[in-house]
Each structure stands twice: as C-alpha cells, then as structure tokens.
Amino acid sequence: MTEQPSDSNTPSHEFHALKAALDPWFAYSTYRPGQEEMLLRAANTCNMGGVMLIDAPTGSGKSSIVSSMLAKANGKLVIVAVRTISQLNTFVRELALIRKKQPTLRYSYLMGKGSSCPLGGEGDIYRKCEIVKSLSTSLLKERAERGNLNPMEDPFIKQQIRKNDEEHPIICPYFIRSKAFVRSDKTQALRFVASEAVRRKGEVMTTQSIDPKFLLGMCENLCPYEVMMQAASKSDVLILNYYHLFDAGIYEQLCTLLERDPSDILLLIDEAHNCGEVMQEILSTELNEIVLDNAEREIAGLRKEVRNLDAIRHLLPSIKKFIDGLRRSKESEDWFDPALFSRIILKESFFTSIDEVVSELLSAAEVLTEKKQKSGDFRIGGIEQLSLFFEKISRSLTHSSYLTIYRKEGEKIVLHVRNIDPAPALSEIARYHHTTIMVSGTLTPLESYRQLYFRELDTKPISLLSLSNAFPKENRKLLGCEDITTAFKMRQEKSNTELIEEYIMQFSHIPGNLAVYFPSYAMLETFAQATESRIEHKEVFIEPRDASEAALLHATFTELPMKNREGILFAVCGGKFSEGLDYRGDMLSGAMVVGLPLAPYNNVRRMIMDYYKKRYGDAGEFLSYTLPALNKGLQSLGRVLRTPEDHGVLVFADRRFLDSEIFSTIPQWMQDELIVVNINSFSNHAI
Length: 687
Ligand code: SF4
Fold this sequence. Notes:
Layout: H1 12-22, H2 35-48, E1 50-55, H3 65-71, E2 77-82, H4 85-101, E3 107-110, H5 113-116, H6 125-145, H7 155-163, H8 173-178, E4 179-183, E5 190-194, H9 196-207, H10 215-219, H11 224-233, E6 237-241, H12 242-246, H13 248-258, E7 265-269, H14 275-282, E8 285-287, H15 289-302, H16 309-327, E9 333-335, H17 338-347, H18 354-374, H19 382-398, E10 402-409, E11 412-419, H20 423-432, E12 435-440, H21 446-454, E13 462-466, E14 476-481, H22 494-507, E15 514-518, H23 521-531, E16 539-542, H24 550-559, E17 567-572, E18 590-594, H25 603-616, H26 619-637, E19 648-653, H27 660-663, H28 668-673, E20 675-677, H29 682-686
Parallel strand pairs: 1-12, 1-13, 2-6, 2-7, 3-6, 7-12, 14-19, 14-20, 15-17, 15-18, 16-17, 18-19
Antiparallel strand pairs: 4-5, 8-11, 9-10, 10-11
Helix pairs in contact: 1-2, 2-3, 9-11, 15-16, 15-19, 16-17, 18-19, 20-21, 25-26
This protein binds iron/sulfur cluster (SF4).
C-alpha cells in the first residue's frame, strides 16, 4: 500500500485522487524509491499552481515528472525546457513510453534554427530567416492575389527559386513549400496557412517519435522549423531548449504563435542548476576592438544615407582610447566604472547622454541592416553590436545588477556588461506560468536555489523536495580528504602539493577508468605534469583547452574499458568533461575533485559578492561564490554512477568540503555516507 507523502499537506482523499489521476500516465509498472512521492507532489503543484524545486539524484526517475504534469494538465500545454540534445532525447523516450498507455498523447520538440535550418548562406540565422521569410511571403501573396494559389505549380515562383543565390539567398524555397495562401469561402479574403505537406509532416511528428537526428530527412524539402511549429501547435507536450524559454522576445513570439498564454502552460525545467547562468548569459553583452573596426567601416559606407553619422564616428576613437588605457592594467579581469566610461565618451562627442548615443546608434543600425539584407548579408554589424553594448551600459548606470567588466585575452581587451542577478527574470517567468517545476540532480541546497532564483516571487507558493540516492549504497564509496586543500594560502606549500600528488597517485591505482577534476586549467597542468610520468599503469588523458579536440579524446577515453584497457582523465570542474556527459557502466569507475573549484577571487568577484550581500545579507557570500563551486564539484562527481549497476569511488579531495558550513550543504545521502580519510587511510578505503 502506498504511504501518503509525510511532508505533504495534502489531505488523504486528495492524495488518493492524485494517485488515481497519476497512475494512468505513469509509464512503468513500479516506482523507484522516492519516485512516487516526487510525482504525487509534482501533480499536486500542477493542480494548485505554483513553483516546485526538486533535487533528485541520478536514478530517481525524474523525467517521469512529465507524467504528473499530464495527469493534471486539464488542457494546459506542458512545456519541458532542456539544455542539451541528450536531455531532449531522454524526454522523447519517456513520452514514447507514456504513449503506450495513452495512445492519443501528442508531443513534439522545437530545436533552434541554428541546428535545424537547411538554407545556405552566412550570417545570423534568425535574421536571415526573418528576412527571407518576409520576402518569400510577399512573393507568395503577390502571386496568390493574381490567382496562383499553388506555389509549387507556379512557373514564376519556380523561376524565382531557381534564380535564388544559395550563398546569398533572398527567398527561402523551404519556407515557400511550407506555406500557402487560401481564399476564405465566405469573404474571399486571403489567409496565410501551413501547406498541406507541412500539416502532414506535423501530424507525423506529433504521433511518431522522430529522433532529432532524422528530423531534417523527415522534413525532406520543407522548412523543419515550420514543421516543428505545426507539430507544436497540436501537441500536449512540447520540449524546447532553454533559449526558447529564457529569451523573453523569442518566448513571447512562440506563445503568440501557439495562441497560449503562460497562465495556460505548465513548465518543467530540467537540469535547473544551470538556469541562473544561462539567464545571465542571455542578459549580458560584450564589445571588442573587432566590433569597433567593423563599425568604422560601416560608417564610412553609410555617410550619405544617415545624417549625424559623424557624431557616431567621433565616439569610436574615445572608446578605443579607453580600451588602450585598460591594456596597461595588470589584472586579467577587473571592473570599469560605467559612469567614468560614459563621461569620457560623451566629453569628446556631440552627445549629452548615453541614451542619446543609443538612440542614434539604433537608427544607424536600422538603415545599415536594411541595406545589408537587400544584398543577402545577414551578419550582425558592428554598429548594431555597438548599440546593444551602449544599451546595456545605459542599464548599468542605473541597475547595479549589471556589472561592467573588462577582460584581457592576451593583447586583446574585451568590455563586458554582465548581468549578475538572474532572480528578477526567473521570478517573472514563474509569476506568469501556471506552474513551474525545476528539477536537477544537483539542486543542493534547495533553499539556496529558491533564494537565488525566486527572490522576487511573492505571488506563488514555492515548495521544495529533496530525494535521497536511489542507487544501491553498497555500489559506491564516498571519501573526503581531511589533509589537503587548494586554498590560495596553501597552494605553494610544498608539503600540501606533494600530498595532493600522492593522493592522485594512490587514486590512480583504483581499477578502471578514472577522472581527476581540478578548479582550473593552470592547476590541472601543474598536477598533470607532476604525476603523468609516474602513472605507468594507466593511459593518461588531459582535457584540451580547444573544444574541437575534446570529442575525439572523450570517445577514446570512454571506449578503453571495452578494449580491456584503462585510463585516467585530468579535467577541469565546470569544463568540457564534467557536465552533461553520461559515463555509464565501466566508462568511469571513480572521480576525484581536487580542490573546491571557486572562481578566482578578484575585484569583480568582490563586487558580485557585495551585491549579493546587499540583497541576501549573510547568505550572499555563499550564494554568489561558494554555491557555484559546490555545484561544479557535485556535477563532476555525478558523472560516475549513472545506473543502479554502476560501481564507483567518489572523492572530495579538499578539507574545505568537510568544513561544517559547506558539509552541511551537500546532499543528505552524501553527508550520511562520507568517510573522512587521510593519506594513510585513503588507499584502504578507496581500493
Ligand atoms: S524559413 Fe526555415 S528553412 Fe527558411 S531560413 Fe527560416 S528556418 Fe531556415
């Protein structure tokens, strides 16, 4: 008999009603430990409306939360936001299983145009699409008004498609085949609708599970995005990437096209520990000298068309001078004062305020964009990037959540206006949606994520749920080293570094493939250099800085066990091999996180911390500085145990993990199972 969730306030009869609603949507015959409680509580949240944060370790069956949402959807659309294709595939598989019980279930996904658009040509894909669609629509309309309602039979349209330059397209043949004008029987007015072919493919997409890698092939000569949108409009569940949800402009457009208000949507956000970072990235912008050179060239070519361009041209040397001044700085990253920047820029210009600069840049960017698009050039221009940068500079003058930073990359200087507070934007999303459920295997401590994401949400109830690790306890060993640290003051201490090397050497004797994660490339290189030649019993792999070499190295490493060989991977916490990758079975038998992977402490970090202290008081330092490091560490260790059959050793190799303020924030199952070791006892426990 199922127990009612102990920490739920749901009365017994409601609990039974929830269970009765959930069961027909649950795809499996049995629940995993803790899974039923999670799904019932999620169903309850969907029923009442509100926000729920769930910390559910790998193996908890968290993708079944979509069953809870469907059970309580009552005609609302379920949207699942994911970050990677592998997450998307997980939900497609889950929904395929649910459909075996619920044959009428319709679902689909929406991938970005960047990965799905087959049209050639360079430049920004969204801009290119917008323009070719607009010109294609005009062409279709003009021909329809002349009575040609079947574009694919229209010789003129066929001729235009033949004439279209593939490298600099001005119309989109895929779009033309995907749309059609029809005449209304009653009014005889023209209506623009999805073509019959798109409607057929949309039907296929919602009723069959189409693997994303076969999407382009399935769409044949139609626009995949139009097919996906057609499918989305007929779906009960839509899977999309974070950017579709977090970019306010894109999401608003999507809701309009789907004719859905967010209050009519149940939202599930997977791998939700990433939300803050992705939201901040979307809200930030940067400027470098290449942009300034491009802007200079564009101004030279635009002088006749836009008055007052001289005023903009005069800005550029001042910005360059400002950048030159920063070149002398000894810091690789530091804050610059936006007020000082504005004064310097305005002093030698014809403008009296930054807002005036923004407005002038926007007008010039508009003319330039139009001119470039006519010639099939869809790249984002220098003036346009400059206008985005000044818009954010203007914001940083009044909003302390926008921090102005410069970074030195060799001889190059990059100016950055970085958003450092995702709470207002994430609170807004939750405020307008009927239900928002965020889930991750590393959303610990939940209370911290609640503060970090929903500080400004006071109109909705927020509930928290943490699950324990459902995998067999006997398959894992969790160790914490009490005698080493990578804390700054100990980094050069010879006895400490030698001990870390000794730990790595002892760790390397654990049978199977292993990974050692470091806080930075610099530290990785130091310790790899010190130990590589001594590790004779395993093949050594070092995470490359260049992303293009990473895939091959990763494949070679993970294939070793199949060839009866073993290796040790030196990688960076938060790098290419520490998140989003599944090392199932023998692919990884142990992971060691050397050091608490805190971001380098500098002026920028201090300012971010000050901002958070103002917002959150004492919790500010933890939220802004320690929490991201803790999450990176947990993500790295989380690569090892991916299925109930996996065995592995997980090592927190820094005594700071054992300090009570940090130890009390790691997941409860880790706190319960962790064995404190020193260099003398490590091997006995680990091997
Ligand atoms: S309409 Fe479709 S095929 Fe054409 S540019 Fe846009 S996304 Fe690409």
